[in-house]
Design goal:
about 180 residues, mainly beta, five-stranded antiparallel beta sheet, 13 strands
Length: about 180
């Protein structure tokens, strides 16, 4: 006997085949990159975990052979259906918003600063970078719920809106020394 069950609203399938007292279970799902899926076999009195779908040739696959006697003890024989459940969701990085005109992202802005004290005060994180006639500008989003960035340069900083978002903008000379504007 072989039975085929639909999974995930018809996106995938689970087949169960009786082979000499053992149930051969095979499943397939499209790899949606959402995370790890667990496969279950359901019966009239319960369900049994078959395992985790694994990526293979662009799809997610599951293969498991179990004793029919064990499936009967757990209420999952004869099979009445199957289930694929997202057991662990993968956190996707959000898309970075577009940049204001003339600005680019820089991963390590502290390396542009001429003074080691300032580089340490940056406290990590990326910044926006823009060249200007007198050197360059570094900008970090301004947030009232966080400490002010680069506090040694508080007096040099300006709060500016870039594409409608408030940023703290710090002006520097070409060698990385702060400048007044």
């Amino acid at each position: 006997m072989e039975r085929r069950f639909s999974l995930e609203g018809g996106r995938g399938w689970l087949t169960v085949r009786d082979s000499q007292g053992r149930a051969e279970c095979k499943g397939e799902l499209p790899d949606d990159k959402n995370g790890l899926y667990k496969g279950w076999l359901a019966g009239p009195g319960g369900k049994v975990l078959l395992g985790t779908f694994v990526p293979e040739q662009g799809t997610l696959r599951l293969s498991r052979t179990m004793s029919i006697a064990e499936l009967e003890r757990q209420g999952a024989w004869p099979p009445t259906g199957g289930e694929a459940v997202l057991a662990y969701a993968v956190r996707r990085e959000r898309e970075k918003p577009s940049l204001p005109a003339g600005w680019s992202r820089i991963a390590e802005p502290a390396r542009l600063m001429g003074e080691p004290l300032l580089a340490r005060a940056w406290e990590g994180g990326e910044a926006l970078f823009c060249k200007d006639e007198q050197g360059f500008l570094l900008a970090r989003k301004f947030r009232t719920d966080r400490p002010f960035p680069l506090t040694p340069l508080f007096c040099f900083a300006q709060i500016r809106e870039l594409d409608g978002v408030p940023y703290v903008v710090f002006p520097f000379r070409p060698g990385g020394c702060p400048r007044l504007e």
